[in-house]
What we know:
The protein is α/β, with parallel strands linked by helices.
Amino acid sequence: xxxxxxxxxxxxxxxxxxxxxxxxxxxxxxxxxxxxxxxxxxxxxxxxxxxxxxxxxxxxxxxxxxxxxxxxxxxxxxxxxxxxxxxxxxxxxxxxxxxxxxxxxxxxxxxxxxxxxxxxxxxxxxxxxxxxxxxxxxxxxxxxxxxxxxxxxxx
Length: 155
């Protein structure tokens, strides 16, 4: 007797959140700019937002122009050619209460960004909007993981 093999349904992949608590590190100690980019980029890799080559693309972007945004904030992200390395849009956050050198500036908040398609522009806009106020920066710099998560995820 022959049985028809049941046709397998395609597995529906759950859409990733933009930010997970495990992608937030507070109380970070100062490090070189390249090491910070590598660490924040590795968090994006480890949570499945990007493939490993994206981290090098983040360093490449920084060489072409600084991702320092003012207000003690840097938003490292990959060069355009690395778009193919992005699997889902997401961010990773490192907070340096005493600051860390970023080119000629000191930053206290570093948010690594990976955006599918043009989503990176939307993500940049939302973060810039939230970080405009100095008190927002202060809350994040002095906050714990939950504070940072709630502020940046809109909860």
